[in-house]
Amino acid sequence: MIKKTAVGIFLTYAVHVCFAQASVKSLQEEHIAKLLISTSEVRDLYPYNVNIGFFLTTALGNLEYGPQGVLTYIHETMHVDDNTRNLSTDPKRYYRFNASEFMTVDIRDGFFTSDNIFPLLPAYVRDSSMASMTQTYLLCRNSCLSRIYGIYGLLEEFDAYSLEPSCLLNFHSFFDTCGYTNTTKFWAGYYNSKGNSWNDFYYFNIFFAAYLKYADSHRKTFYDQLITDTAFKYAFSKIYHRFAESLIALDRIDRETAPAMRNQANYPFAFQEALDNLKMLNDSDDTRKYIARLLVDLP
User: Which helix (H) or strand (E) holds 31?
Assistant: First the structure.
């Protein structure tokens, strides 16, 4: 079970330095973002992408209005790390779990591009206003790895998305103690990021289930190999559980320990209807049946 943690003297240090002022607001935000990353469990990613400021320059990335800019930086930097290693491991795919565990999976003959599963998706996922995820990860063109590498590319995206709520959990104590982030406008952005992470978790489960359903009908040999591939199932299970357990832990913290200023009831999620619909699809018998075939018990 994932628990809320702090790193050594991090909290004491953060209380003092997160108030640091700079003549330019963007430099102040970059200073705080670097502090977050340098004292966190993802500090090993920093050498792969030092341009944190790039991710903090839009309204959605501005740290004053929530953590999404830092989360996007971490997500994209993880791709840089993965793809750097994948250059030398083809026909394998490499997945980073943390600084000390790197999982490698063989690409099985018979895999297919992810656009094939589009017709099997629930109508809500295909046709609603939230269908941008299918355009981004299934129907994309050019060098889109989530389409080209099929379920192996989708797992890499799932891995990167799973790191976002994990980092929110890791950073939570900082947010509570830093005067710059412990504000109502920051927590509004935080709850939006957490809600989006739940949506991402549900989307990818639906994608994985559709991929297996297609394989079960059209690529039986590949399907049989995949659901007995211990390396793939181990990687999938590690990522799946990090994603789910981080979100559950965040919900518990926000429900049980939140002071009045950041009570979740004060910050309605803009896409609550989508969240409810995606959860229903995620919990359907069809999705659960196929996801269960990829999960294994972890030590």
Answer: helix 25-38
The answer as to whether 297 is a domain residue is no
Cβ atoms 138, 147 nearer than 8 A: yes
Residue 131 CA to residue 231 CA, distance in Å, equals 31
Give the residue-averaged pLDDT of 6-35: 65
d(CA 34, CA 30): 6
* Residue 299 domain flag: no
d(CA 23, CA 19): 13
Q: Is the Cβ–Cβ distance between 93 and 156 less than 8 Å? A: yes
Domain extent at residue 125: 10-292
Query: Per-residue pLDDT tens for 158-210?
Result: 999 999 999 999 999 899 888 888 899 999 999 999 999 999 999 999 999 99
Inform me whether the pLDDT recorded for 16 exceeds 60: no
Pick from 26, 30, 33, 38: nearest CA to 67 = 33
Q: Distance between CA 228 and CA 117 in Å, rounded?
A: 21
Structurally, how many domains does the chain consist of?
A: 1
Is 126 within 8 Å of 138 (Cβ atoms)? no
Angle at 178 between CA 174 and CA 183, to 5 degrees: 110
Element (H, E) at 220: helix 220-226
- Partners of residue 94 on adjacent β-strands: 104
